[in-house]
Amino acid sequence: MTDFKIPEFCANDPRHIATRMFLQSNLTEDEYNKRIVKYIEQCKICNNNAECLSQARTNLSRDKTTYPWPNYDWDYSNYVDNNYSAQATGSNANAGVFKNLDASIKVGKGFLIDPNPGDNSKPNGDNLTDRSGDFPVYGCSGSRRDGCKKWWEVRDRANLGKPYNDQFFNKYSTSGSNSSSYYFKVGTCDRPDIKDISECNMRGYNWIGGACFQDRYAYMDNTGGIKPFRGLVPSMATDLLAFNPLYIMGSFMGSDTPYMKIQECPKIEGFIDSNNKNIWVGLLVGLMMIYISKKMIK
Q: Quick check: 212 and 191 in contact, CB under 8 A?
C-alpha cells in the first residue's frame, strides 16, 4: 500500500480516519490510491476550513453509483435563500410599500410558479455570486468569503463524470430545471458477448466470477410541478406522486414511469434476457437512499 502524506487537518480528524479505513478495506488498492490522490489535493485546498473539509470527505466516499453527484446534492433551501430571502428581494421595514409588495409577489411566484432548480440553474453555480445555483451566496459574505472560496472549489470537484460511455447518459437533461435530476445504479446487465477481462474493464464494466457485467442505471426526474405551476408547493405534490405504488411496481418490472426512466440492457443475439428479474433490489436500495436524502434536507 502506498504511503501517502495526508495533510494534518485531514489525517487526524476521526471522521476522516473512519472514512479512509472503510474505503481501504472495501476497495482495490488501485481504486483506493486514485481516490486518495484527489482527496489530498482537496485537503490542501481546504487548509482547515471545516465546511470545505467536510466536502472533501464526502467526495472521497463517492463512487460511480450516481451521476452527477452535484445534482443529487442539490440544496433546495440554499436556492430559496439565494432568490427569495429578504436580502435577495430587498424587502425590509424601511423599503417602502411598493418595494415590499414587489418582493412579496416574487416570493409568491417562488411558492407556486418559479421552478426550483430554475431554468438557468447549474449545481454549485458558476461562481460565489451566482444566485441561479445552490451555493449559499448570502451566507458567504464578509469574513466567510475566503473560506467559502475554498469550499466552493472543492464542492465543484464532486462530479466524477459518466460511469461509462453510453448514449443513455446523454438522453435526459441534468442542467437548468433538471439540476436536481440524476442517474443512479439499479442493477446490472449480463454481457455474455464480452469474454475478455481487458475489454470488459476498458468499457468501464465489471468482471466478476469469470463473467462481464454492465452496471444498469435509471434516471430520476426531479423537475417539479406541472407547467406553469412549478414552484415549491406543486413540486412537493409531484414528489409524492413519484412514490405512487403503481409507478414503483412498474419500475421493479423494468418499465419507465413519468418520474423514472430505466436503462435498457443490450439485446444480445443467442442469449435469453433475464436482466429484469433482479432489478427490484437495486431500485429498492436506490429509492431508500432518495427517501433518506429528502428527509435530511434542511
A: yes
d(CA 234, CA 247): 19
Residue 63 amino acid letter: D
- 151-182 tens-digit pLDDT: 999 999 999 999 999 999 999 999 999 998 99
Only one residue has cell 435563500, namely: 81
pLDDT of residue 42: 96
Q: What is the pTM of this model?
A: 0.81
Domain ranges across the chain: 8-61, 71-155, 168-295
Per-position b or e across 268-279, b if 16+ CB within 10 A of its CB: eeeeeeebeeeb
Residue 195: predicted pLDDT: 94
User: Pairing mode, if any, of strands 206-208 and 182-190?
Assistant: unpaired
Residue 152: how many CB atoms within 10 A of its CB? Answer: 21
Nearest to residue 123, comparing CAs of 136, 134, 114? 134
Q: For residue 262, what are the β-bridge partners?
A: 218
| Beta-carbon contacts of residue 143 (< 8 Å; ≥ 6 apart) | none
Spatial distance between the Cα atoms of 72 and 190, rounded to a whole number of angstroms? 27
State the pLDDT at residue 297.
Answer: 40
Spatial CB neighbours of 32, under 8 Å, sequence gap ≥ 6: 1, 23, 24
- Kindly report the CA angle at 159 between 153 and 161, in degrees rounded to 5? 140
SS (H, E, C) 155-205: HCCCCCCCCCCCCHHHHCCCCHHHCCCEEEEEEEEECCCCCCHHHHHHCCC
Amino acid present at 111: F
Cα first-last separation, the chain:
39
Judge contact between 258 and 247, C-beta under 8 A.
yes
CA atoms within 13 A on the CB side of 120: 5
